[in-house]
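[Automated response] Your request has been received and processed.

Submitted sequence:
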Amino acid sequence: MEEYNSEAQNIAMQIIAYSGEGRTLAFQALNAAQAGNFIEAQKLLKESEVAIGQAHDVQTELLVAEANGEQTPFSILLIHSQDHFMTSMLAGELIKEMIRMSKNQNGGN
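Generated structure:
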């Protein structure tokens, strides 16, 4: 059980790390767009989506394991990782829309 608990902690830390990277890149994209650099903003958004995708892949491994009957131990760290993941996904989606709106206001430049 302790070995699995350690594995669950590792998974949680991976989700937190990838989610944090994705959120950071999304906010960097917003900063680039605010400076009028929409090409850089789009590049950063794509990098953000890759990082969030990696977090999703790790989360999916955990979900598949549980669906296959493996017991997932209750862990505040695991809950915290899910919180990071969901807020990073939401931030990315909102920032993407904010950049689109900003681009439209600036005549698509």
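Summary generated for your ticket: The helical segments are 2-34, 38-67, 76-105. The domain at 2-105 is CATH 1.20.58.80 (Methane Monooxygenase Hydroxylase; Chain G, domain 1).
If you did not submit this request, please reply to this message.
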